[in-house]
Amino acid sequence: MKKSKFYNLSKNELETLEIQRDAIAEWLFTGTLGKLVNSVISRPIFSSIASLYLKSPWSSKKIESFKYEFGIDDTDFEKTDYQSLNDYFIRKFKTHTRPFSRNEWELSAPAEGYYLVSIDENLPIKGISTNPKELLDGLPAFETRQSLVIRLSPKEYHRLHFPLSGMIKSIAPLDGRLYSINPVTLKYDHDLFIKNKRIALELQFDNGVNAYIILIGATYIGSIQLSFKAGDRFTKGDEFGYFEFGGSTAVILLDTKLNFDEKILSYSEQGIETFAKLGQTIAIKYK
Questions:
Q1: Using one digit for the tens of pLDDT, what is the confidence trace for 159-188?
Q2: Following DSSP, what letter does each residue of 150-213 receive, concatenated?
Q3: Over the stretch 72-92, which tens digit does the pLDDT of each residue have?
Q4: Is residue 180 classed exposed, middle or buried when 0-12, 13-18 and 19+ CB atoms within 10 A define those classes?
Q5: By three-state DSSP, how is residue 238 classified?
Q6: What letter does residue 60 receive in the DSSP assignment?
Q7: What is the CATH code for 1-287?
């Protein structure tokens, strides 16, 4: 098992991140037969079939082994009778366990996960050459001044919340495959963000910032469920959707340079992720 470091924003310290060597992923992206298999299982029809099991009562037997494999602590989550593995995957936090600042000049973490932040339009992942225009696939684009990549590991909360108050200008589904996305697979294919199915939400925040939040699907169910529609207003902290089993990456494009925590920026430049809890303040927009 490979080990690297991540910066824990809550604890203000570096911690060890264990990255499991994914032999299957390596085979799918490097072996001749593996590539052929990958071309089949990345088709949405495969994920549709897999979802029948992952949403079925039979899959609930896998919940305990899933929790054990990823070392999940359920303390902050609602106690409920989960009907399937996917049902557990999209579990909710208890009320008030992840408060959001009411200050509209503070950007709150929209997801609980690992953040990389850029100082310009380039996605802040080493080796990734994808740019905002490719990611948006022809959608109307502003000049991107900063971008964020948020990775949700399998053990994390998979629901997403608005980081500020504002309005949804548009929602656009972008078609594609459903390849597995993680640090292992990105090493072998740098274009997975633009190859996979995704949904782009164009947002106009009340404090004057414009943004795109792009949710990227992945293998298995790969679905992204939204609870808002274009034209709706939202309040900071509102839940706007969730990844079903398999989806775990979001990209945020900003038209304004915000003042991110200096350590987040410094570590991002080194390729070191920052783990932020849902609702934590990660940047400030000066008035």
A1: 999 999 999 999 998 876 665 666 656 565
A2: EE--TTS--EEE-SS-EEEEEEEEE--B----SHHHHHH-TTHHHHB-EEEEEEEETTS-EEEE
A3: 999 999 989 999 999 999 999
A4: buried
A5: coil
A6: G
A7: 2.70.70.10
